[in-house]
Specification:
Bound molecules: adenosine-5'-diphosphate, magnesium ion
Shape: flat
Distance between the termini: 91 Å
Number of helices: 9
Order of helices and strands: HHHHHEEEEEHHHEEEEEEH
Largest sheet: 3 strands, antiparallel
Number of strands: 11
Strand order of the largest sheet: 2-3-4
Length: 622
């Protein structure tokens, strides 16, 4: 619709450009109507503007009539008449040409219009073609789909047929089965009767079993009660066991050392036992051998007795023979040879018996010896046990003595420190710094007296030729290292670990080296009193942990500057002073002699690394 409209507009535009509308409509209508209604086009005379006759064209016949018109003049010389006739004819021809032009215009417009409609029709046609091709494709797809469905349906139909066949076959089979089942059912009914009979018997038995079951359940409940009682007892005994286990673990520790000794003893005992067992085994073997030999001996004796009896009978026979017929002497000799052989074997066996008896005696002696060594080992073991007990007692007493000695050491150490003075004042001289103090370097206004009583304790200052002497508990000259200073302080740190309160503070004018002495500078040799003290505290507390001591350490750091207390560990302390404004740092003394500052941040410390980080934080805050 929209496309068509556009085309029409285009046509109009084309029209607007090339065609004048006014006269053409009349011409068109004249053409369309085929001139049947006689609508006439009026054409005026043109340039002349004279009142000429109006010529009308209504169709092709008018034009042909005009062309067929002939000159009317009779006289060839009547030029005037002929000229008038000619001009008239020319006018008519002009009108005819104009009519033709108008007609052509109309045709052109018509052609234009038809072309535009044809374009529109073409477009519509193309559209329709596209629609048709789409529809065709859809139909093709639908057709394909339908064919596939048809195929699948055919397949399923085939399957259904096969299934039906199978079902018919199975039905046949089932019928046969049912018949056989009916026959078997008859048999089974007979069996059922038998089984019901048996079932009755079984139900009676079941009743009996249920009765016994009831009785067993009652017994079971009684057992459960007994069990709960036993469990209560068990829990009680478990507690006692846990107590005993604790004791046992304590015992075990002491036993471990003893076990080593015990093990060595046991090894000895085991070796002796094995030797004893060996001896017993040997003895047993001997005994068996002796028994064997004895039985053999018995047999031999029996044989001998038998042979003696035989000899006797033979002798009797011999006598008889001698008596009766004086049998041949050969027989007699052979018999005597036999007898002598028997005697020889008998002697040999007697010898064997003797050697075996000797062996038996030897084995019994060996056994006795083994018994004696076993007894000895046992007595040695008992002695060792007694010794171990004695050693344990001595160890306990030694431990007790150590604890006592430690207590005494603490007491003595702190009395020594007290004797040295509870308040001690040290003096440290700062070396001249190369950049700022170089001006007065050559004067050396400080000297240290070297007399026995004042060495290391006194310092002399020269000012305007006058000497001023000062004495302290200790004087550190300008070459004294951080280590030297700390050696003097370390005893105080030990006192702190022993539970005494210790305070170390530095005093002096700005630039005199307070911070250097207390904190020091990075580097192992440059560390000051605070990091060294903390290292010592952690080292000593760790070594005392093995003796059963446990130390909890907390640190807080504050600075008193212009009479105001500042918490060096407070968060945001360095950047924002307002943060700490709300807190009141006041010094408090409690009845136990402890001095604390309220609102200070207290940090738990577990290693010297913790303290190092705290010190870094504090120095940042300053
Ligand atoms: P304070 O804290 O008393 O104002 P510092 O500890 O800051 O003084 O010391 C001032 C300067 O002197 C620092 O540069 C420091 O390194 C140096 N200094 C102080 N004592 C010693 C010393 N015993 N050996 C070397 N340099 C020192
Ligand atoms: Mg300082």
């Amino acid at each position: 619709m929209w496309v068509l409209l556009q085309k029409e507009n285009l046509g109009n535009a084309r029209r607007g450009m090339g065609v004048k509308l006014g006269p053409r409509r009349n011409v068109l209508s004249a053409i369309n109507n085929g001139g049947a209604h006689g609508d006439a086009v009026s054409v005026d005379g043109g340039d002349g503007g004279s009142a000429a006759a109006v010529i009308e064209f209504s169709g092709r016949e008018d034009v042909e009539r005009l062309l067929a018109e002939k000159m009317k003049g009779k006289c060839k010389t009547d030029f005037k008449g002929r000229a008038e006739q000619m001009s008239e004819y020319i006018k008519k021809l002009r009108a005819c040409i104009r009519w033709y032009i108008d007609l052509e215009d109309g045709y052109l417009a018509e052609q234009e219009k038809l072309r535009s409609t044809m374009d529109a029709e073409n477009d519509r046609h193309a559209e329709l073609e596209v629609q048709l091709s789409n529809a065709l494709q859809e139909l093709k797809a639908a057709n394909l789909d339908l064919t596939t469905r048809c195929n699948s349906l055919e397949e399923s139909l085939h399957k259904e047929k096969v299934d039906r066949m199978l079902a018919v076959e199975s039905y046949e089979k089932e019928r046969q089965d049912r018949e056989s089942a009916e026959t078997s059912r008859d048999m089974l009914t007979v069996d059922l009767e038998r089984v019901t009979h048996e079932a009755k018997r079984f139900s009676e038995q079941l009743k009996m079993v249920q009765d016994t079951n009831k009785r067993l359940q009652e017994y079971n409940t009684s057992l459960q009660q007994y069990n709960s009682n036993l469990q209560a007892d068990a829990s009680k005994s478990g507690e006692t066991i846990s107590k005993l286990q604790k004791e046992k673990s304590a015992m075990m520790e002491t036993m471990v050392s003893l076990k080593d000794l015990n093990n060595s003893m046991k090894n000895q005992l085991d070796s002796s036992r094995t030797s004893q067992q060996e001896a017993i085994r040997v003895k047993e073997e001997f005994r068996k051998e002796v028994e064997c030999l004895r039985s053999e001996l018995q047999q031999v004796r029996d044989d001998r007795d038998q042979s003696v009896a035989q000899v006797n009978t033979l002798n009797v026979e011999l006598a008889n023979c001698k008596e009766i017929a004086g049998q041949s002497t050969e027989d007699c000799e052979s018999l005597s040879v036999k007898v002598s052989a028997f005697e020889v074997t008998c002697n040999m066996q007697q010898e064997q018996i003797q050697t075996l008896q000797k062996q038996l005696a030897f084995a019994t002696e060996k056994l006795k010896l083994a018994d004696v060594t076993a007894v000895e080992v046992m007595t040695g073991y008992q002695e060792q046990k007694v010794k171990i007990k004695d050693l344990e007692e001595r160890l306990a007493s030694a431990e007790f003595q150590i604890v006592e000695a430690d207590k005494l050491r603490k007491k003595l150490h702190n009395t020594i420190l007290e004797l040295k003075g509870n308040i001690r004042v040290f003096c440290r001289v700062r070396p001249l710094l190369s950049d700022s103090d170089s001006s007065g370097a050559e004067e050396a206004p400080i000297s240290y007296p070297t007399s026995v009583e004042s060495a290391g304790r006194c310092i002399d200052l020269m000012n305007q030729g006058q000497r001023f002497s000062f004495s302290y508990d200790k004087v550190f000259d300008h070459v004294a290292s951080q280590e030297d200073v700390f050696v003097e302080m370390s005893q105080l740190v030990q006192s702190a670990l022993d539970g005494y309160k210790v305070c170390i503070f530095a005093y002096g004018q700005t630039g005199s080296g307070k911070t250097y002495t207390m904190m020091g500078q990075p580097g192992i040799d440059q560390k000051g009193i605070i990091p060294r003290s903390l290292e010592q505290i952690f080292k000593t507390s760790q070594s005392l942990e093995s003796q059963g001591w446990k130390y909890c350490m907390q640190a807080s750091m504050l600075e008193i500057y212009n009479e105001t207390i500042r918490d060096l560990l407070a968060p945001g302390r360095s950047s924002n002073f307002e943060m700490t404004a709300g807190k009141q740092y006041t010094i408090k003394h409690d009845p136990h002699g402890n001095t604390t500052v309220s609102d200070l941040i207290v940090a738990d410390v577990f290693s010297s690394a913790d303290v190092t980080s705290l010190l870094a934080k504090a120095s940042q805050s300053r």
